[in-house]
Amino acid sequence: MIGIIIAIIAGLLILLVIGSYNLLVSSRNRVKNGWHQIDVQLKRRIDLIPNLVETVKAYAAHEREVFEKIAEARNQAINARGPGEAARADSQLTSTLKTLFALVENYPDLKANQNFMRLQEELTHTENKIAFARQFYNDVVLDYNNRVQMFPTNIIAALFRFQPAEFYEIPETEREVPKVSF
């Protein structure tokens, strides 16, 4: 009788370990998937930028410094590894794109150019997708990190060396409240 009780308890413990391990693996894979979704959208934006720059160059050839900064920021974004480095590179790229769009204000013909307008619209849609992908990624990171840190899955996580994932955080410079004046 005691042997049967011990076997049932052992079986339940084995099922708990297997279930917890599979839950952790599934959560970790969702984090990886979430990161790859951000990566896909960042790549899409990076691919749009040369077309946008070439269109603007035709109108503003003397603005060489702006184009060089955009190229440099784009290269940093391409070579970024991990959420922290990608967030910093993404911030720099966003800042240089704002400079490009400020430059466009000086060229009314460019603002009316159909190719430029299409590229700008595609970039806007891509930015929205990036924002959604970041939100999704941070949601799955939160879920995964909770599983890694909460009982009883934290025991299995420690046993199998599951590490908490890094959130996608914006740099401090982007947290400043913009000043609006009329």
Automatic annotation (TrEMBL):
Membrane topology, record value: Single-pass membrane protein
Main location: membrane
This protein's record includes keyword Transmembrane: yes
Entry keywords, A to Z: Membrane, Transmembrane, Transmembrane helix
Spans through the membrane: 6-25
Keyword Transferase included in the entry's annotation: no
Subcellular location: Membrane
Pfam families with a match to the protein in the record: LemA
A GO CC annotation given for this chain: membrane
Gene3D superfamilies: LemA-like domain (1.20.1440.20)
Family: Belongs to the LemA family.
Protein name: LemA family protein
Lineage: Bacteria, Bacteria division WOR-3
